Amino acid sequence: MKNNIKFLSLFLVLCILITGCVNSAFGDSKKINTEDIRSNINEFYGKFSDDYLKEKIIVVNKDIIGLDGEVIKYIDANNKVLRCTVIIYGESEKLTSDYYFIEDYIYVTMLDEYYTYPIYYSYNRPVDIMYRTFEEEIIYEGMIYELVNGEFVKTNIKDIKIPYTSLQEINKAIGE
What we know:
The chain is of the alpha+beta class. It has helices at residues 2-26, 34-53, 167-173; strands at 31-32, 58-63, 69-75, 81-89, 93-102, 105-115, 129-140, 143-148, 151-155. This is DUF4367 domain-containing protein.
């Protein structure tokens, strides 16, 4: 009987160790490969810049309905939206979000600038920026991954200040 208990205990410990090793080998399901993402982004930037300089990209500006803000769309010759810049103005901040539509995911950068005082306080002097925050996210298969300590980690949508999560939401915001 003691041998059976020892065997079962050893078997259980081995199963736990094997499960841990398998999970670490195939990666954490809450993270995505940052190196592949960076490579895709750099490749996208290169092609985008080249096409923009060759005037192969159309730029369209539209106001956001119901907000003080605008959307700038960058569209290629095949009528595919490659990038959108969303700018939302607030009393004491300005949020600029860039959406890059790369393969099967969306790479999003967000620059939030906080003013030292509300814009309407004084129109005669330039607005000073008290501080800025910069965030990077990936939207992939309906999930949002935030760049944390050099890795894209799955995060809760409520924890992110991302204004839109898809091209459809952006189009709806500008009445398209």
